[in-house]
Write a structure and sequence with these properties.
This protein is about 15% helix and about 45% strand. It contains one helix and eight strands, in the order αββββββββ. A four-stranded antiparallel β-sheet has the order 1-3-6-5, with no helix packed on it. Strands 2-8-7-4 form a four-stranded mixed β-sheet, with no helix packed on it.
């Protein structure tokens, strides 16, 4: 009889723990918009000369109450080289992603950079555009 009562107690405890784990949101379910706020969602870099790398910064604020670690930054193409900040961004402080675009041929362009924050599943995609003009 004691074994049956003990088994029943253990079953209820395991069920209760699994139910509790399902109802609590995990850290990975936090929305990116509750962790960082981009200075801009899209950047217009204007006209840039062909064959000369152009560098600019995508700025964001840490709007959470914890330090933010930029886990990774990725470019949509090989002509764009983003660099993530090396140090955690403290609450209320500004972080910068350095972006270098190498304009090979004259034409308008539309590119993107994806920013992945540690502990957040959903990345932030930030666009930039402009026009590459031929050298005179």
């Amino acid at each position: 009889m004691k074994k049956i009562v003990f088994s029943l107690f253990v079953s209820i405890a395991v069920f209760s723990l699994s139910l509790n784990a399902q109802t609590k949101p995990s850290a990975a379910s936090v929305s990116i918009d509750k962790v960082i706020k981009m200075e801009k969602d899209s950047y217009d870099v204007g006209k840039i000369p062909q064959g000369e790398p152009y560098t600019f910064y995508m700025q964001f604020s840490n709007i959470s109450k914890k330090p933010v670690v930029v886990e990774n930054v990725m470019a949509g193409c090989g002509c764009t080289i983003p660099e993530k900040p090396q140090q955690p961004i403290m609450p209320g402080k500004i972080g910068k992603v350095k972006v270098q675009y190498n304009a090979a041929g004259p034409a308008p362009f539309h590119k993107d950079v994806t920013i992945k924050i540690a502990g957040v599943n959903e990345p932030k995609v930030v666009m930039f555009n402009g026009e590459v003009v031929a050298k005179k």
